[in-house]
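Async update (no meeting this week)

Hi team, since we skipped the sync, here's where things stand on the single-chain job. The sequence we agreed to prioritize is pasted below, unchanged from the tracker. I ran it this morning and attached the output directly underneath so nobody has to dig for it. Comments welcome in thread, and please keep replies under the output.
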Amino acid sequence: MARLSSGKRINSARDDAAGLAIAERLSRTVRGLGVTARNAMDGQSMLQTSDGALAAITENLQRMRELAVQASNGTMSVGDRQAIQLEVEQLKSEIDRIAKETRFNGVNLLDRDAVYTAADYEAGTSFERFDFSALEGEALVKAQKQVIVDQLRNRWLAEAEALVQTYYGITGDGASIEIFIDETPEVGTEGFAAYVSSTINPASGLGQDIELHLNLDSFLPLNPPNTGVDPSVSINQFNALGLADRTISHEMVHAVARRSINTGTSRWFEEGIADFLTGADERVAGYLFAAGQAGDSSIDVALPNIAGNNVTNRNALADEIGDGTGGADAWNTAGEYASSYVAVRYLDQAIRDSGGNGVRDVIDIMKTNPGSVTLDSAIAQVVSDLGVTDLRVSGYATGFTDEASFISAFRTDGDAGGGGSQFIRDGMNIMNDDTGSIAGLDVNPTALSLDAQSVVSDESNYQVQPLQHWEVIFPPGFEPPEATPRLGTALASISVQLGTERGESIDLELGGANLNALRLEDFDVSTGDASVLRQIDRALDHVSFERGLLGATMNRLEMAFHASSLFAGNLTEARSRIADADYASELSNLTRQQVLQRAGVSMLAQANAQSGLVLQLLT
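Output:
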C-alpha cells in the first residue's frame, strides 16, 4: 500500500539499500543536467549578443572601406579627402563605443586591446611592435627568433630575391640556402649584422654549401617590417637606420652571385653590387664624417665633409678599394665597403654614359660562363660590345678598359682627374634621403626617390618556402604558425558549465574588437594612399573570423543543450526503473493479498459457524 500511495518502490533504505544509493546518484545527475541545459542557452544568448555587436561593427567597417576607396581616387582634392576623413572619424568612434558598451550580465564582451607578442604573430600580419616583457631566458630568445623567421618567410627573402632578379638578372639555381640566427656570432663576424658563407668549387668557380647567418642582436629591437640597426653604421647625427630588409637584400646578392657568377677574385665588386642594390649612401657619409671630425663631432664640422667639400677625405675613400687587385687590405673596415659601393656606382655610371645598361651589362657577361669569365674579362668585353675606346663617366678625363685600369682610374685623386673622388662630389648626392640604390632617383632620373624605408617594399606574402629559385632550410624548431585572419588581441575566456562534474565545461575565447584591437586608431584616408585598404581589410577579416568562431560555438551550445536534454531523459527513465513502483505488479500483489485475506476471513467465519451448529445439535 505504501508503494502504491507514494509511487515509489523504495520508500526507505530498508526497502533496497543499494537501489536507493544508485537512484540518488542518478537524481543528482538528472537535476544537474537540467541546469546545464539552461547554462548552454545562457551561453548562446551571450554569444548572440556579441555577434549582434560585431555585425554592427562590420557595417561600420564596410562603410569605412567604401570611404577609403573613394578617397584613393585621383579626382579627390585635399579638401575632399579631409571631409571624407570626418565621417571616418565618426565611424571609428562608433566602433569603439559599440565595443566598450557591449555587455552581457555585466561582462564586457569586446573591449580588449591588441596584444603584440611572438606567440600571437599570425602569418601574413605585419605587427608594428612586439611585447616580450613577460618573457625571459630561452623563451625570450625563441620568441625573438620566431619573429625574425616569420619576417623572412613573410617578406624579407622574397623581396630580396625579386630585387636581385629585377636589377641584376641573376637567380638561384635550386640550390639550398640554410638560415642561422646566431645568438653569439662566430669569431671574426662580430661586427656583421648578417653574412653569407660558402665554399668555392674550384672547377666551376661557384659557391656551394650556402649559409645565411643573422646576428640576433643586430635585429633588435624588433620592429618589423623595417627593423634592426646595422652595427657598421655609426655616423652620429647621420645614422640612418640599417634596416633588416636592406641587410637581407645585400646578403641575397651574395648568395645569388655565388651561384651565378665568378666573384672569387674581385671581392670589391661582390660587396659593391650588394650595397648598390639597395644603396649605401650612409656608408659613404659615415666614412667622410669620421675622417673629417678632427676631434669635433659637431654638425657644423660634419656637414662640409659629408657634402664632399673635403677633397682629402674623398681621396682617402677612393684609395680604400683593394682586396688584392691594387692593395692588400683585409676586409674589416667600413671604408673598404664604402669604397666598393662608390666604385660600383662609378662603374655603372661610366657604362651608362658610354651607351650601355650599367653594371647589369657586366653581370650579364659574367653569368654566361662562371668558370672562366672574370670581372676583368667582362669589363673588356663591355668595351668591345659598345664599340668604344674605353669606358668613362661623361666629361671625366680618365677612362678604363679592364679591371686594373678601372681601379687605377677610380683612385685618381683630385676634383678634375676623373676618379672616385670627383665622382663622390659631382656624381653622388649623399645628403638627400635617396639611399643611392640602383632602383632609385639618384642613379636613374626616371625612377622614384627611395629612402631607407622604401627602397625595399613591405608587401606581405607569407610563404613556407618564400624563394622561387632556392630551397630554404630554416632553423629547426621554428615551424610556420597556423595561418588565421585573427589579429592578436587580449582574449576573454568565459567558461560555460555543460556537465554535472568538475572540468565538464568549455571555454569561450572572445577576441577584442575596439579600435586598438582592430589596429584602426591611426586609420586615415585623407592622404589618398590606397594602402589603407589593406589595413581595413585586416580588420574586416578579424571581425569575420570572430563572428565565424561565435557562430560555430553557438551551434555547439545548441547541440550541447539537446544532448543534455536527451541525456537527462534517458537517466530519468533509468532512475524510474530503479526507484519507482511498478503499479501493475504492486496492484496485482495487493489484489492477491486482499483475496487471500477475504478467503481467510470467510473460512474462519465458516469454521466458527460449524462450531455453533454442533452446539445446537447437542442442545
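Quick observations from my side:
The first strand starts at residue 103 and ends at 104.
Residues 434 and 451 are 5 Å apart (CA to CA).
Reply here if anything looks off.
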